[in-house]
Each structure stands twice: as structure tokens, then as C-alpha cells.
Design a protein that fits this description.
The chain is built from 5 helices and 5 strands; from the N terminus they run βααβββαβαα. By secondary structure, the protein is an alpha+beta fold. The protein has a 5-stranded mixed β-sheet, with helices on both faces. The relative contact order is 0.11.
């Protein structure tokens, strides 16, 4: 069974995110709090959404998917970006991951969105096999880039200097 997450699911979502981080060998990097998740998922301006997978027989939580809307300038339409997909080890192989992916694909189709995208660790062969089985294609010519910490702050400090400095920064009015 796949259902939309509710505020009552916050402790479960937090635990599942930490399980995923541990599986991905990055538990120390999983710093989001339940309160941050509450604001992001259920606040006045939600920036993300989550689905919960539960066992059809027992109702036990089996996994989750956390996603947000993005936009393609090439197609001129929104799309869906899957930030996290996780199925607990004891529930793997029962179809929960594919059911979550199918539910997300249905959201895209129902809303007329043109793309459904996500990233996957290159060593996660089982996940890659599932993605190939549903027809997902790797985007090998693209690499993910990320700015965080001091590098992010340093670049942000350069905003408003030099070429284009007359343009307002996003989120600010002049």
C-alpha cells in the first residue's frame, strides 16, 4: 500500500531517512530534524512531499519516497525530482520500491509533468537493476555538482559584485 505521508509520520520519516543515510554510508551527514521535516513537508509553504510504503498484510512501514517539483526550461513544464527512495532490508523484494516509483510516475502523468528524475549511487547495483527494469535511462553525460559550507558562503559573498551586479538577487527586492 502506498499513501501520502502525514504529520503523524514525522518520527517514522526521520527514522527512515537515518536508515537510508546509514545504508549509504553517510549517517553523520543526516542532520535533518523532525521539526525541519515538519516545516519542509507540512509547513505553510511545503517544499517537498513524501509517500509511505506499507506492507499490505501487516500495515508495517516498509519504506518511503521523498520528492519535490522541479522545472525543465527545455520542455517548459514541471517535473518531479525524487530526492530519496528507501525500502527497509526486510521488506526488499516485495515490490515496495517499484510501487513507490509507479505512484510517483502517476503523479507526473496526472499533472502533465514531463520528467521524473533522480540520482543513484554508482555502487548500488540492486537499485540500478530495478531502475533499468522499469525503463529508466542513465544520464551518463551529466555529473552532479554541489556547493556546500565554506565554498557556498564564499560564492554567495561575491553576489552583487562585478558583471550583472545591477540584477537583484533571488528572494530580495530592490
Amino acid at each position: 500500500m502506498i499513501r501520502a505521508a502525514t504529520p503523524a509520520d514525522l518520527p517514522l520519516l526521520h527514522a527512515l531517512i537515518r536508515e537510508l543515510a546509514d545504508y549509504e554510508r553517510a549517517l553523520a551527514d543526516a542532520q535533518a530534524t523532525e521539526e525541519q521535516l515538519r516545516t519542509a513537508l507540512f509547513g505553510a509553504d511545503p517544499v517537498a512531499h513524501a509517500l509511505i510504503a506499507a506492507d499490505d498484510t501487516t500495515g508495517e512501514p516498509a519504506g518511503f519516497a521523498l520528492w519535490f517539483r522541479n522545472f525543465s526550461t527545455w520542455t517548459g513544464t514541471p517535473g518531479l525530482y525524487l530526492e530519496d527512495l528507501y525500502v527497509r532490508p526486510q521488506a526488499r523484494g516485495a515490490g515496495h520500491g517499484k510501487a513507490l516509483l509507479a505512484a510517483l510516475a502517476a503523479i507526473c502523468v496526472e499533472r502533465g509533468w514531463s520528467r521524473f528524475e533522480w540520482s543513484v549511487l554508482d555502487w548500488n547495483e540492486k537499485a540500478l537493476a530495478v531502475y533499468r527494469s522499469i525503463g529508466a535511462l542513465p544520464q551518463d553525460e551529466w555529473t552532479v555538482q554541489r556547493l556546500t559550507g565554506p565554498a557556498l558562503e564564499k560564492l554567495a559573498g561575491q553576489a552583487g559584485k562585478g558583471a550583472g551586479s545591477a540584477a537583484p538577487r533571488p528572494g530580495r527586492t530592490t
